[in-house]
Amino acid sequence: MSPSTSTDIAGETLRVALVTEVFPNDLEGTHLRSLLAGAREESTGEAAGWGALSALSSLVYAPVKVVYAVGGLVVGGFAWLFSAGDNDVVRTVTTPAVRGDYVVTPEHLRGERPLEFIGRDPGYP
Question: 69: which residues sit within 8 A by CB, 6+ positions away?
């Protein structure tokens, strides 16, 4: 494989690999692009499998999350009552319970996105 070249554009370094020795007849890079695109696509059966697995996982996960959220709302109501109406106390109790994911998606199962059972404050990065 030929050595890679680098070009500095607006502070970012772009590395361009020269693959003329790997695909000598592919002057426009169409064969290489089609191979790379094919590697990222999943088949219909694979997508259906991930979808079915996420639906089955959500049948167990979603009711547990809803019970947790309702429990957090009840505890938050008591916290508000016992704190003489302090809304910050309610927010501290209810935000982790109510926010977060309620369904499991294929991205969660593949590890592409974390599953958040206990939600975060929207201002937290």
Answer: 97, 98
Position 43 scores a pLDDT of: 87
55-90 residue pLDDT tens: 999 999 999 999 999 999 999 999 999 998 889 999
- 3 state DSSP class of 78: helix
**Chain centroid to CA 125:** 14
Helix (H) or strand (E) holding 12: strand 12-16
* β-sheet bridge partners, residue 57: none
Tokens of 20: 């003329």
Task: List, in order, residues 6 or more apart from 5 with CB less than 8 Å away.
Answer: 15, 16, 18
Judged by DSSP in three states, 8 sits in: strand
pTM of the model: 0.62
